[in-house]
Amino acid sequence: MGKIFGTDGIRCLVNHEPLSAETTLKISKTVGFLLKSKKKTNSRVIICKDTRLSGYLYEPIITAGFISMGMEVILVGPLPTPAVPLLMRTLRADIGVMITASHNTYHYNGLKFFNSDGYKISTILERKIEEIVLNKKKYSKILKTEINTGKAIRLDDASGRYSEFLKSTLEKSLKIKKLKIILDCGNGATYEIAPNIFWELGHEVIAINNKPNGTNINQNCGAININQLSKKVLELKADIGFAFDGDGDRLIIVDEKGKEVDGDKIIALFATHLIKSKKRNKSAFPVITTIMSNLGLEKYLFNNLKIKLKRSSVGDINVINEMRKFNSFLGGEQSGHIIIPEFSKTGDGILAALKVTEIISKINKSTSKVFGLYKSLPQIKLNIPYRKISSNQLKYIKNINKKKFKDKNFRYLIRLSGTEPLIRILVEGENIQQVQEYAKILEKDIRKRIE
User: Fold this and answer.
1) What is the DSSP letter of 376?
2) Domain 161-257 sits in which CATH superfamily?
3) Side by side, which strands form the sheet with 379-385?
């Protein structure tokens, strides 16, 4: 075990390294040691989780680690990831922990750590944590032997606090149009709070996949698979469908025609309307997305709004870091992470969905017309599973990505997933036949190289 952190925190199969029970305890103690406030009173930690079964394993282990370091732990139960930085601010906590494997199935779990500013911890701090956890000598120096330990309490109104914050982000003077909404909660952390919020705002709400049992999170549903949502929107003639992932920080939309609206289209909509409402200097605030975002979005932002698009590596933490660097008002990923720093320091699926209903109320058009801002270029995405990747294979993947094309509207990208043992291939271009042919060539070549 030489590496603990991946693209977004820590993630692996339950009870496997680096999240065996023993290593998890070491991680929580080390995080406590590095992030604990130097004030005399006990530092405070917020611990949240999604609905997967193994949350019952990791919650008490992590709690024990922080308590052993003399810290006060506040347990808030199952809530979406973006609730963590909010609760940290209102409860003046020093550390936030989200126990989740995001979009993965229940076989996986993971940890996301937030610092006292409410941002995910830096890669520099991640490396420090790894150095201590993986080195017996360094780890032995942080062990606390004092008799006085910390304590843990459960916060009963955490859901209410987060709910009221979300509703407060809506414009007070705007009369929200009452919509017929299908919510696919992915049997995850939004299963209760999302239907309640939209119902309280007066919408007609039909929730699906809102009965988590610990093992059905992200199981062919939610933002990962919108087939059920699309069928339900058409069947019930709904105005719109919202799909969340397991920890509620991602949003994918289905319009009234049953068609998918991805994160790129949501970013385009928000860029259009946030620019107008805030009278921003367009050239001073680039929109930040990742290398996965469609070229159609980039063209729309520049040609129609005169806004530059800057691309980061995959992962919402990379998007957020670039947003902070350029003081950007909007960023996100095609996969559905939408970050609006005016309201939240991380992606928030429910917040994004609420802002969409706000815009629909303002312009009073159908969902398909609201999102009909540009035409996406054809993209093909392929996943190739692997067991091990050698240094030579990694070198080959890096080199193959360097190929240049005369056609600026054609590109491809090969990368390793940061959350699963998968090689991800993206091919994009104006000519769908060319895209399909090149995707087949790349897939065949990569499979041959790793077998």
Assistant:
1) P
2) Alpha-D-Glucose-1,6-Bisphosphate, subunit A, domain 3 (3.40.120.10)
3) 379-385, 422-429, 410-416
Per the DSSP assignment, residues forming a β-bridge with 424 are 383, 415
| DSSP per-residue letters across 407-426 | -TTEEEEEEE-SSSSEEEEE
Active site residues per annotation: 102
Question: Whole-angstrom Cα distance, residue 434 to residue 451?
Answer: 26
125, two tokens: 């701090």
pLDDT per residue over 47-85, tens digit each? 999 999 999 999 999 999 999 999 999 999 999 999 999
What burial letters (b/e) apply to 305-327, b meaning 16+ CB within 10 Å?
Answer: bebbbbbbebbbbbbbbbbeebe
Structure-block tokens of residue 363: 């312009």
Nearest-10 crossing angle of helices 263-278, 349-363: 60
368-390 confidence digits (pLDDT tens): 999 999 999 999 999 999 988 88
Inter-residue contact 351 to 332 (CB < 8 Å): no
**Which CATH class for the 261-370 domain?**
alpha beta
Residue 123 near residue 268 (C-beta atoms within 8 A): no
Residue from 190, 14, 222, 209 nearest 101 by CA: 14
CATH number of 10-156: 3.40.120.10
Look up residue 123 and give its two tokens: 């890669």
Report residue 77 as tokens: 């139960």
User: Chain centroid to CA 140: how far?
Assistant: 34
User: Please, are residues 177 and 235 in contact by the beta-carbon 8 Å criterion?
Assistant: no
Tell if the pTM clears 0.70, that is, is over it: yes
Is the distance from CB of 207 to CB of 219 less than 8 angstroms?
A: no
The vertex-394 CA angle with 320 and 289, nearest 5°, equals 20
Cα of first residue to Cα of last residue in the chain, in angstroms, is: 24
